[in-house]
Amino acid sequence: MRVFAFLLLLIAAPALAATTPIKAGQSAPDFTRPGFDGKPVKLSAYRGKVVLLDFWASWCPPCIEEAPHLIALQKAHAGKLQIIGVSMDDSEPPARAMAKQFPFNYPLLMGDAKFGGLYGGVLGLPQIFLIGRDGKVIKMWRGEMKAGELDKAIKEAVG
Amino acid sequence: MTRFGLISFSGCAIMLALALLPAAAQPGTAPAIPQTVLMKPADLANDIKAGKAPVILQVGFSVLYQQAHIPGAIYAGPGNKEEGIDNLKKQAASLAKDKPLVIYCGCCPWEKCPNIAAAWKELTAEGFKNLKVLYLPQNFGEDWADKGYPVVKAS
Known about the structure:
The structure holds 2 protein chains of 2 kinds. Chain A has 5 helices and 7 strands, in the order αβββαβαβαββα. Chain A is α/β, with parallel strands linked by helices. Chain A has one domain (22-158): Glutaredoxin (3-Layer(aba) Sandwich). Chain A has a 5-stranded mixed beta sheet with strand order 5-4-3-6-7. In chain A, strands 1-2 form a two-stranded antiparallel sheet. By secondary structure, chain B is α/β, with parallel strands linked by helices. Chain B contains 6 helices and 5 strands, in the order αβαβαβαβαβα. In chain B, strands 1-5-4-2-3 form a 5-stranded parallel beta sheet. The N and C termini of chain B lie far apart (37 Å). The interface between A and B is large, with 55 and 49 residues.
């Protein structure tokens, strides 16, 4: 009976969804994906810098509202902070169209369900991971957060 | 309210940036959905647990559905696009209009969701009499998955 239950679990396992985002203290999973500019974006290449992994989409109003601020944060902490924008749009054209609307000064790339799963599931936007110089997640935010909260966390992380 | 605050921008710069938003990113009209048709996540979870699950349609985005959705939910989105509404019509065509039907999205905060109100409006116009809209104030992750309610991913 136990063997049967175990086999049943194995069969059912692929249907289970990743719904727990990577937590603080865990290593941020490495990835390499082509950026919108054609250059590869590799997370571990930024080891030594604080990284802000921003999951966004063209259909997500709060994500777009944040874009000017993220651009300003990248400028303010240049050399110490690296923002990476991961679009969770269903297809690339709307994400690329949105990318043209703002003077992004950090790499943008396409995500997908597999990429979301790598980070424990991106089940709502905006979702942001703040990653320390050691490659470990400092904090994760999903949904809207209090004004100034991200700025404060970045300031503490970059030192 | 936006999440940021310490680095200031001129009002003009923000207004310009927001004015440039394409239709896809315009805030939704979910608050226009009557309170009487809203369903609490706990109530739907209880129905599922009791084996009384209604037909459930996910009217949000495909990438979200692929990662995780309510067991048995059928993909019928996205509600903010013409092809998404066509997909919704197609999925709804075979459903009885007097049977319980629940739609949900959860892509982003309720008042900014671009999908749910359009889907509700379409199904209401089609005459679905027992239609409920799952109320997910923040998103699917916060208000469903994190509560421990059942999820599966697309196979």
